[in-house]
Predict the structure.
Amino acid sequence: MKDEEIIREVQRGQTKLFEELVRKYYEKIYRYCYYHISNEHSALDITQEVFMKIYENIEIYENKGKRLILRCRVVEVKCLEFDN
């Protein structure tokens, strides 16, 4: 199932499908965070926060032809917040 299809179904109430996005992107987001902040515990925390933020705002996500993870500035923002 493509990201856009999963998101559409989650928006329609099939919230259990969100786990597919987590499984698909968890490692990539974690690695990105760890690379930028070099702290394992904090990278895990930020990764969790990112998925919570995505889930909280999934209803306003609009597909503009890019994958969810590429459109998600939440990861960058959370890493920057950690540095400050």
Remarks:
- The chain is about 70% helix and 0% strand.
- The first helix runs from residue 3 to 11.
